[in-house]
Predict the structure.
Amino acid sequence: QVQLQESGPGLVKPSQTLSLTCTVSGGSISSGDYYWSWIRQPAGKGLEWIGRIYTSGNTDYNPSLKSRVTMSLDTSKNQFSLKVTSVTAADTAVYYCARDVGSSTLKFDYWGQGALVTVSS
Amino acid sequence: EIVMTQTPLSLSVTPGQPASISCKSSQSLLHGDGQTYLCWYLQRAGQPPQLLIHGASNRFSGVPDRFSGSGSGTDFTLKISRVEAEDVGVYYCMQCIQLPYTFGQGTKLEIK
């Protein structure tokens, strides 16, 4: 059974960098036809796909955030990470990590519980 | 990007009665491989979304058979044959044929 768990600071100051890590257990992030995605949800609002990183390290980002987002893999720790630079209050949200099966209609079959990140001084 | 539009945005259903949610996409979700790239999720309060349906009509492992998905091209429907109390939450459709993946606004289901 694959499990994902987000971790990182819950409070980030405006203009600084948001950094989150997703730890995966029950499977290797560097094998298989999988993308590892980040999705966020402001309080009381809908879901926004931020981007994804493939097992090879290739990335795809949402154009709405592309200039500020970086994703990476740490295969030694079976983790992947998200960085969002120059954050504002609009980046306050619950951030989820999730697995996306590559060559399939099966998307986001496993999710983390979510990490609330608040942008405030 | 592809715009996903759900209706209604909320519905109230008596236990044991059926429920239906519509999702329309601004572009066809039928891929050249013959598959349709449309998923449905349920998000219960305080929980991450959970996958219900993928490929427009394929129930994910462990999803009760009272949930069914249908549709093609740009018009899709999620049906619950007999609503139960545990079905309360917000339902989202999502297209995954084109990046960026995009979600509908969500439909809140509550029990009467």
Remarks:
- Chain B has a mean pLDDT of 97.
